[in-house]
Amino acid sequence: MKLFTKLAIAFTAIVSVSANAAKPQLEVDVGVLTTENGNVNATLTITNNGNGQQKILAWYTDLEEEHIFKVERDGIEVDFYGPHFKRQAPTEKDFIKLKSGESLNKTFELSSLYDMSETGNYQVTYDVKSFHLFTNKGQLNKAEKMNVDTLTSNSVYLWLEGITSKGASNKGKPGGGSDSGDCIDGTCFTGRCDNGQKTEILSAFNAADQLTNNSVAYLNSHSANNTSARYETWFGAATSSRYNTATAHFNAINDAIDTKPVTFDCSCKKTYYAYVYPTQPYKVYLCKAFWSANEIGTDSRAGTIIHELSHFNAVAGTDDVVYGHSGAQNLADSNPVQALNNADSHEYFAENTPNQN
């Protein structure tokens, strides 16, 4: 992936400081690169400039283990979304040993664990402190054991353009906004969505809104006595009752997109597109196939969002009767009632590929 910096300025590295009398001669350097999709990659280098071996607790060299960076936006520290663990006291196996002149190098993506979604001037610093940073303190005296070890780096400054500046629209959802956690204009994120994923989700969500608006407009301009190939392909022969059900479903999906506090979770590693828990609106878990799909078209990201929203009991309460274009078409022909209970049928009606009037 092509990387480029955005006004990233790194000042001279600060040598580590420890409250212990014998200060480890560790130097820490941080560099930052931003990607074209808005992700922020930080490179951490810890070098032993001392004459002998130096130790550092491994937990404090891994963003999956500890909150190791201080990230500020316009002088205010941003939220950290990573884990906080309860552990036993460290043992020797928990320490990394660096020979004289040896360096440890690691790279971390920051926007999935720190709130870097808003426009502003950001400052990134490696900044950790612990009673056990350089030793397990099993053999130290009482006074030494009470000393807090610290280790800091240079600070890197960069300007980031917020995700909302890239086209996200404010749908006016209740309880939304960045003040209510990892949310952007009422759409929230869990499962460590990075900036690139958030941008893609917001774009797909907007596309889903457009597809749903089009579906509602179609249903309002037609009737059970005046359907067309588009309706009949996915929902079969119409009756007033069945047509009203389709209309109610899409009105509910449209309302969920426009007014409900929808949350997207990026933690799923399965090969599926997405999943939800029907009794737990309005959280949608996005899986691997979602990220490789086109934004619109057959089995698209936008269509997937419509499919999943239809599953919620508070929306349309659909099931997965059949999957795929041919299966949905056959279901419409053989059992229109079940077609109206099938999530893929709703998705394909909204995607309308191939295009039918």
From TrEMBL:
Q: Its Gene Ontology molecular function terms?
A: metal ion binding; metalloendopeptidase activity
Give the signal sequence positions.
Answer: 1-21
**One Pfam match:** Aspzincin_M35
> Which cofactor does this sequence's record say it needs?
Zn(2+)
Q: Name one GO biological process term.
A: proteolysis
Q: Which UniProt keywords apply?
A: Hydrolase, Metal-binding, Metalloprotease, Protease, Signal, Zinc
- All copies of the Lysine-specific metallo-endopeptidase domain together span 217-351
Q: Which superkingdom is the protein from?
A: Bacteria
Give the record's family classification: Belongs to the peptidase M35 family.
- Extract the PANTHER family matched here: NEUTRAL PROTEASE 2-RELATED, PTHR37016
| UniProt-recorded name of the protein | Peptidyl-Lys metalloendopeptidase
Species whose genome carries this gene = Pseudoalteromonas denitrificans DSM 6059
Recall the taxonomic lineage recorded for the source organism. Bacteria, Pseudomonadati, Pseudomonadota, Gammaproteobacteria, Alteromonadales
